[in-house]
Amino acid sequence: MAIRTGTRSRPVACGSIAASVGEFEYRSMRKRASFAFGLLMALGATTASPILAQEQGKIFDWLPANDESVRMDPANFHTGRTYHPGPQGGNIHVGIESQRPVTIALTSAEDWNAALQRPELITSLNYLCLREHVVKTTYICDLPAQPMTLIIRDERNNPDRAIFAGLGAVLDPHEKIDRAVGVGIATILTGEGSPTRRFAAPNDIHIQYYRWACVSNCIQPEFQWIRQAREKYELTSFLKVYNGFTPERDGEQVSVRIKSPVPMIVALVPSDVAGQLHRRADVVDGVLERNSCQQRGVQSLEFQCTFNATDGPQALIVGPEPGARVPSHKKAEIEMLASKCVANCVAPAAGATQAVSENNQQPRQ
Known about the structure:
Layout (H helix, E strand, L loop, with lengths): L53 E2 L2 E15 L4 E7 L6 E19 H9 L10 E16 L4 E7 L6 H4 L11 H15 L12 E14 L5 E13 L5 E6 L6 E19 H9 L4 H5 L5 E14 L6 E7 L10 E13 L22
Antiparallel strand pairs: 1-2, 2-7, 3-6, 4-5, 4-6, 4-7, 8-13, 9-12, 10-11, 10-12, 10-13
């Protein structure tokens, strides 16, 4: 494995600092909250993933993302990825393998950035998901809804306590030891001279990040509400029939909207039945007794029905309720929409999950 000293092998922002073990103390966060997880986007370069395993038929899992190789001396810190969860928090999945034991934790990105500028603040940081004495692990953690930075520390004692005793103090450029400390901090924090940095007792660490991504049923059909009929017409005592709707799939939705000055019958029935009703309005009641997609006595309403492909051609019938007085020169409005596939409409493979989204679309008002 190729190791680049003093910096990462991948172009991801990072930093390291050295500290004496006597000045370092991990403090776990005093309070740990339980966080709800939403559907977010998959784990990207700096985002935390949602926890749901399936969404609308898609199957998600952790997949390898970028990785990095790090070399550390005793008591060194390493700054890993900073995660930016959504408002409901998130979680992470990281593979870590080290030659020597390390401690892993997460801390507030804001607090860690401040500690990089003032190393004495390290001892006052709060840590989340603290893991000690790690050589090889899959590190997971539930994140709060704030930016969090992954921190790794080499657990070995520093053999040269004198040089690092001044860490966190104001450095005097005229003192030999302080100048040595200053050069060391500048090398690690800014990367100056990092390719030629010499390590006293190197500890090579490999960090494999993972992203939350779709692994199956990833291309889902997309649906839109498509108008099937729309008319504003002058009321008569006769039934109006709108033909031409045939469901293309099981579970296809239809939305119907009616507005009328008198109580109306509105129903979707098989096309052959609609023809009979148009000729014999006296059998409407008997036919509609066996029909589930209907509304009786309505004047202003929007409702939805669901059909299967085996239901065959359907027709929308609209008319005043029997016995209703039909005023002259008054109009009724009728509109019918069907949810139709507009993209990725290839039938799914046998056994594949068919739960799909309606794109959260609502019928147009």
